[in-house]
């Protein structure tokens, strides 16, 4: 496969996007976390969608109205509808063309008897049939030719032509009573496709045309899209939700891939516009299965990230413990909070824990702490959440943990998590930084300096220590850990859900004073679609034992990210 990620001539696009990024956050001390906290929008638009999709549960070959009704009945019978999961989605296999007025034509269900359609009596008839259960209906469409197929096909032209009257198409769906539309003209959005400006323009133009049709018809459809590409049209994104990575599978690695995929976009979530982390895959699938602990971590993260909560497993395969988990009213309340702001990554301790936090409408803060290692007592610094003290509550149980100062200790199981609500908070003292740019760095070959607009970056830092970026005279002189902040670029996204070697992050190591005992591994999440998307303010901890130190960043078993700057926290006395 032609992989742009490790190509020395990586395509660098979006200078206009780069300049916008730099003007807004790239050259400030603010990172996306702080941008979330300050921009409190007035709640408008729909809440994250909640429901069930036929996609993985029933596939895309044959779907009958009877099957779909049965799934809806089970959702109602087992209390999921009452909990808020009210949208039943015909993901695919329901349309084969258009009527004379450009409304969708329902597909034939069985190639054997050709006797019944997915909507044999029309979409509206099915909606009226299932409405007494408290269930609404959503549909999925490509809206034209499929641009990037998931499975190899003899032709890349698979799919119907786009409706000539897109306004009428949308109007007919809305008039039938459909409330949710998922639109994925690119079913397998590889980095090579998303980073290519011409291909990305073609994809993004499809999304823009669809959202304009929804606006033109004044439809209240919840509009969900796949991943947007790198074209300038992406700045016109007005969808209610958009995918941030490829399909979710019921595996821990898949969760890691998705978690890293949302890092650069988490701060964009707002009322009526959300990052879609993909379907909740909770039942066993072939040989893949999550533990109950992993399911709970995944569900907690989806909820706090304000992702749509849409699961896609056959209801018959859903065990009762999983059903009860999905119905937890306190977790759902976080997801449906009026403020509509996602958690963002605060700190990452490699092979230990992640700490994510986000604001709530009532002034509280929610936090997710994910355990990457074995079961152990974890020390969770409140400063990593932005506070010196706070009252903690367990979101799952509602139990008041009490008032904590500086550090909270808790046992977290392997692949488990804490889901906390923080109130009565006291902010941490503000940090001050000493910043080092590439202008003051030594870039060791084969790495080199490249220009992005007017900004210098250290790029092509190869695996196994081949090339590095080095800063000298970095202040230190203590025995405790020092917090550093890195501005970097990593567009080395996973090729697909089958790419098990890339979980949307890159490993690098910081070596202090070229001392083999002062090696600090860092795991850098992806930063966006292109190699022009800078992520500012990624925090890590290292030791700087000398008054002045030499700090080197080099690759481990893969290419390192590109680096823009290193900042070192000033001691409290200097900061004051």
UniProtKB/TrEMBL annotation:
BP GO terms, sorted: carbohydrate metabolic process
Gene3D superfamilies in alphabetical order: Aldolase class I (3.20.20.70), Golgi alpha-mannosidase II (2.60.40.1180)
EC numbers for this chain: 3.2.1.22
Domain Alpha galactosidase C-terminal: from-to ranges: 353-422
Highest taxon listed in the record's lineage: Eukaryota
Keywords: Disulfide bond, Glycosidase, Hydrolase, Signal
InterPro entries registered for this protein in UniProt: Aldolase_TIM, GH, Glyco_hydro_27, Glyco_hydro_b, Melibiase_C
Segment forming the signal sequence: none
Catalysed transformations (reactions): Hydrolysis of terminal, non-reducing alpha-D-galactose residues in alpha-D-galactosides, including galactose oligosaccharides, galactomannans and galactolipids
GO molecular function, one term: alpha-galactosidase activity
Similarity-based family: Belongs to the glycosyl hydrolase 27 family.
Protein's recorded name: Alpha-galactosidase
Organism lineage: Eukaryota, Fungi, Dikarya, Basidiomycota, Pucciniomycotina
